């Protein structure tokens, strides 16, 4: 079984579930999970966790993301993107400066109402399934963070821009809200996710490339090890005489580690056995005497 994270470049027309299903067939294993839904019409970075790495799916879902989008002004659709049914069309009479001014108002903490065509669940049912059945339910606004919006090109009625944002931000909703603020409506014409945490578009692989690597026996070169996700944390190594305690998932005294440096920090640490195998993430207890496991990846 493969363990680690593979950076998939999702292509248009595939759902995130489709990508997982394809990878199960290519790699011949069931334990695979994606790290957050990407719209079928959207393309780009979709980190997929394999084997033991499925334990970090939620962690990666929570990471910051970056997108490149084309906003089409003057058109409002039911899905908030160009593939939906057109609900309203208006002439676009705004100026470039008005577009720039309005878009910058969306930088910082904003409120978004989740779109009906989304994977968000209400009372156990996905909003997109309800929408397809013609049902609309009330959604409460949610606070979201936009770190930066960079306009790449304005060729009205189209605006190409890059956005850096926190988890849970709907770019389709952002485009609709910008269109509403400009008084002409708007929807997403194209959307590419260019980054999730430190997984970038340039380092991603299409499903066909992954399939070829699997046939060639070079697939391991495309799989990032689990501990790379936690590279920001210091690493410590358990002394060989304490490895039984380590493998049992016990709390361990600081003296059980050959290279632990007590500096009063509560920062998590990466724990390895004496042979360099990654065991998991540990954190010092409140008394500052032992390291306790937070998430174990050893089986």
TrEMBL record:
Keyword tRNA processing among record annotations: yes
Family statement drawn from the similarity comment of this UniProt entry: Belongs to the pseudouridine synthase TruB family. Type 1 subfamily.
Cross-referenced HAMAP family: TruB_bact
Domain Pseudouridine synthase II N-terminal: 24-171
EC number, as in UniProt: 5.4.99.25
Purpose: Responsible for synthesis of pseudouridine from uracil-55 in the psi GC loop of transfer RNAs.
Domain of life: Bacteria
Occurrences of domain tRNA pseudouridylate synthase B C-terminal (ranges): 172-230
Protein name (database record): tRNA pseudouridine synthase B
Keywords associated with the record: Isomerase, tRNA processing
Reaction equations catalysed: uridine(55) in tRNA = pseudouridine(55) in tRNA
Active site as annotated: 39
UniProt keyword annotation of RNA-binding present: no
UniProt xrefs under InterPro entries: PsdUridine_synth_cat_dom_sf, PsdUridine_synth_N, tRNA_psdUridine_synth_TruB, TruB_C
């Amino acid at each position: 079984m493969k363990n680690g994270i593979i950076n998939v470049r999702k292509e248009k027309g595939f759902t995130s579930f489709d990508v997982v299903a394809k990878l199960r067939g290519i790699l011949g294993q069931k334990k695979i999970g994606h790290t957050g839904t990407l719209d079928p019409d959207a393309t780009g970075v979709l980190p997929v966790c394999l084997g033991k790495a499925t334990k970090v799916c939620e962690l990666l879902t929570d990471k910051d993301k970056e997108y490149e989008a084309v906003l089409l002004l003057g058109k409002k659709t039911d899905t908030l993107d160009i593939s939906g049914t057109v609900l309203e069309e208006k002439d676009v009479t705004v100026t470039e400066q008005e577009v720039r001014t309005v878009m910058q108002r969306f930088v910082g903490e904003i409120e978004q109402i989740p779109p009906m065509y989304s994977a968000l669940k209400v009372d156990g049912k996905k909003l997109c399934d309800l929408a397809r059945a013609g049902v609309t339910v009330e959604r409460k606004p949610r606070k979201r963070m936009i770190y930066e919006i960079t306009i790449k090109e304005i060729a009205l009625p189209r605006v190409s821009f890059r956005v850096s944002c926190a988890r849970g931000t709907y770019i389709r909703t952002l485009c609709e809200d910008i269109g509403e603020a400009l008084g002409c409506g708007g929807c997403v014409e194209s959307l590419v996710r260019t980054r999730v945490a430190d997984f970038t578009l340039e380092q991603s692989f299409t499903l066909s490339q992954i399939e070829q690597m699997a046939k060639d026996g070079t697939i391991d070169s495309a799989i990032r090890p689990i501990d790379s996700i936690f590279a920001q944390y210091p690493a410590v190594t358990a002394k060989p005489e304490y490895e039984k305690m380590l493998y049992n998932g016990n709390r361990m005294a600081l003296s059980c580690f050959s290279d632990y440096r007590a500096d009063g920090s509560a920062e998590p640490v990466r724990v390895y056995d004496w042979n360099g195998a990654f065991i998991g993430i540990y954190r010092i207890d409140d008394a500052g005497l032992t390291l306790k496991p937070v998430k174990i990846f050893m089986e």
